[in-house]
Specification:
Shape: globular
Number of helices: 7
Largest sheet: 7 strands, mixed
Strand content: 25-35%
Length: about 270
């Protein structure tokens, strides 16, 4: 697998093709070639992954930004074609992006992701070591992507501090894995309860105030979006209330653990020291 910066119009046209393939976007939501051209000339990062036949199989794209006066990169897209997903291509693209950002003197890369997407959560926390303390409601509105299927596009804002210890290869970090196992012993604000082939969000206890708390989500939200959209919306409403409530109380999300055998995932919320 080869990874390289994308600069030619041929490469940029291929990126647009991958946008449509990976997300199912129509023309309205696709990032256009002129925007790629401008941002990579002025501090943006656009890296492609190529297989042994020279075909582009994935890309990562970020724009230069500012947060509290500090230089950042806003990672707008990370896409890998279906046949290459789950093989480590996305992780290697993020590592390449991290290296470029460090070369620019950037300490922080941010991006959004759906908090109900368990595999994305696992990747972001267990592989990359992000933290989350910001929740946006219906950030992108209605989109042309069939992946969203009419569900509000609520998003976490992931913070990846690329110079910090959390940005190391956490999938090889035994301490991190042991901590994730212990996460299932933390008091939970809600429970994912079996209901036929699905899991429903059980009762929600917003009174809990322990320093460490857990939030459970379904592990197959994509399948739920198509197979039981009403239940998917219930999960969106319940978790939106949980996260916005506890973020307002000074909590942040620090970890995630996945239990596919019970169709659940668990976030770890930790209250900031005041």
């Amino acid at each position: 697998m080869e990874f390289r910066d994308l600069k030619t119009l041929v490469d940029l046209r291929k990126v647009v093709e991958l946008e449509k393939l990976v997300w199912g976007f129509d023309g309205e939501d696709v990032v256009p070639i002129p925007l790629f051209v401008i941002t990579i000339k002025r501090g943006g990062i656009l890296i492609g992954a190529f297989d042994d036949y020279g075909e582009m199989v994935g890309f990562v794209y970020s724009l230069p930004g500012l947060r509290n006066g500090q230089k950042t990169q806003w990672s707008h897209m990370l896409g890998v074609i279906p046949g290459q997903q789950g093989l480590g291509v996305g992780y290697r693209l993020k590592c390449e992006q991290r290296n470029r950002a460090l070369g620019f003197g950037v300490d922080l890369i941010e991006w959004t992701y759906d908090p109900l997407q368990a595999m994305n959560a696992y990747f972001n926390f267990q592989k990359l070591g992000v933290i989350v303390e910001e929740y946006g409601e219906n950030v992108y509105g209605d989109t042309s992507s069939p992946l969203h299927r009419g569900n509000p596009t609520d998003r976490f804002v992931a913070q990846w501090w690329v110079r910090g210890a959390r940005a190391s290869d956490r999938n090889k970090n035994v301490a991190s894995l042991n901590k994730s196992k212990a996460l299932w012993e933390v008091a939970a604000i809600n429970r994912a309860e079996p209901s036929g082939e699905w899991v429903r969000c059980g009762s929600v206890d917003l009174v809990k105030s322990e320093r460490e708390l857990a939030v459970e989500i379904p592990s197959e939200f994509n399948r739920m979006l198509s197979g039981n959209p009403g239940l998917a919306r219930e999960w969106r409403t319940a978790t939106r209330e949980i996260f916005t409530t506890y973020f307002a109380r000074g909590y942040r999300v620090m970890d995630f653990s996945l239990a596919k055998e019970t169709n659940r995932g668990r976030y770890l919320l930790v209250q900031n020291e005041m």
